[in-house]
Design goal:
This protein has helices at about 10-20, 65-70, 125-135, 145-160, 175, 180-190, 235-240, 285-295, 365-375, 380-385, and strands at about 5, 30, 70-75, 80-85, 90, 95-100, 100-105, 110, 140-145, 160-165, 195-200, 200-205, 210, 215-220, 220-225, 230, 245-250, 260, 265-270, 275-280, 310-315, 315-325, 330-335, 340-350, 350-360. The protein is α/β, with parallel strands linked by helices. Helix 1 (about 10-20) runs parallel beside helix 8 (about 285-295). GO terms for molecular function: dioxygenase activity; ferredoxin-NAD+ reductase activity.
């Protein structure tokens, strides 16, 4: 009987285990996670759950009995210390060895850290600790105008905190959205009373606030750092797998070893539409990548080519984003951005490469079809719908 081992008990790993059973795999499935919590979804941790909305049980991928009912050997609080690819073995922190026939690495990413006392937001315990602190704080300083940073800022304002955000880029979300759309998010937060400090970095974090690279000191009750995440590639690199920005895979999520696969935040996978490898950290990639990897492990013909997708909720703004803006040369709007009810398209050489709908719903399929089609669009028609 074959044994499939999944290292990483997050959304990608849990959905891979689910798919293996749905596809008829009757061998042994071992799902190994370093956290003590069973697999859960991370988006609520910086959104509704951080604001105290929704029950704790709602964040989990499966109910507590699902793993036993589906014969998935879920090992929580267990660290993997080494992968022995030639021997098809996983070494565990307690010194034991777990053999496998096929291996999926879904170890995710970990927050990039700065020296000094600060809160980070990655795990359910991080979210709960931060929520408790927000409830009793007067002021919070957030390092990083990232998605996590801005969602945390919105939650902090909802909790009644004074909020300052420090960001070395010239505006919010400059890298994922570009200056023009990043400015829109900056204006939203300014309108809610957030103090935004762009073009400066946190040189020192202390118990009483932050010293900026300019030398200015900003006081706060506590500091939250949201400056991105780094993929957990250490096990893969040490094992000799091909690693770049993440664990490199083909479009079927197979790594440089034929019996080893990677999915979710940790994978840098070849995307046929873009003709290059992408590492996508967002929820949808884990949601769909885990099942794709499972089918690939089973020998099915798999091409994981979904359009990158992300969503956020900040104050009264709800947004969905599809695609990748790299190399864009033009922006086209449908609707007025200042109304916070519009669709925006990023174009390259007349073709749509990304789109974002803000408080406009049921258009994601349309946007993604435009991206996939690679047709040269009529910009007037695009702007009027």
């Amino acid at each position: 009987m074959a044994t499939y081992v999944i290292v990483g008990a997050g959304l990608a790993g849990a959905k891979a285990a689910e798919t293996l059973r749905e596809e008829g795999f009757d061998g042994e499935i071992v799902l190994i996670g370093a956290e003590n919590e069973r697999p859960y979804e991370r988006p609520p941790l910086s959104k509704e759950y951080l604001q105290g909305k929704g029950e704790r049980e709602s964040i989990f991928v499966h109910g507590p009995q699902w793993y036993a009912d589906n014969a998935v050997d879920l090992r929580l609080g267990t660290r993997v210390t080494r992968l022995e690819l030639d021997n098809h073995l996983v070494r565990l922190g307690d010194g034991s060895r777990q053999p496998y026939d096929k291996l999926l690495i879904a170890t995710g990413a970990t927050p990039r850290r700065l020296p000094g006392p600060a809160y980070y937001l990655r795990t359910v315990h991080d979210s709960e600790a931060l929520r408790e602190r927000l409830a009793g704080a007067g002021s919070v300083l957030i390092v990083g105008a990232s998605w996590i940073g801005l969602e945390t800022a919105a939650a902090a304002r909802a909790a009644g905190c004074e909020v300052t955000v420090v960001e070395p880029e010239p505006t919010a979300l400059n890298r994922p959205l570009g200056h023009e759309l990043g400015d829109l998010f900056a204006r939203l937060h300014l309108s809610k009373g957030v103090d935004l400090r762009f073009g400066t970095a946190a040189a020192e974090i202390t118990e009483t606030g932050v010293r900026l690279s300019s030398g200015e000191r900003l006081a706060a009750d506590f500091v939250v750092v949201g400056i991105g995440a780094a993929p957990e590639v250490g096990l893969a690199r040490d094992a000799g797998l091909d690693v770049g920005q993440g664990i490199r895979t083909d479009a079927a999520l197979r790594t440089s070893h034929p019996d080893v696969f990677a999915a979710g935040d940790v994978a840098e996978s070849f995307h046929p539409l873009y003709g290059r490898r992408l590492r996508v950290e967002h929820w949808a990639n884990a949601l769909h990548g885990g099942p794709a990897a499972a089918r690939s492990m089973l020998g099915q013909d798999v091409v994981h080519d979904r359009i990158p997708y992300f969503y956020t909720d900040q104050y009264e703004l709800g947004m969905e984003f599809s695609g990748d803006i790299e190399g864009y040369d033009e922006i086209v709007y449908r609707g007025e951005p200042e109304s916070l009810e519009f669709v925006v398209y990023w174009l390259r050489e007349g073709r749509v490469i990304a789109g974002m709908n803000v408080n406009v719903w049921d258009v994601v399929d349309e946007i993604q079809e435009l991206i996939r089609s690679r047709v040269i669009v009529d910009q007037k028609e695009l702007s009027t719908g």
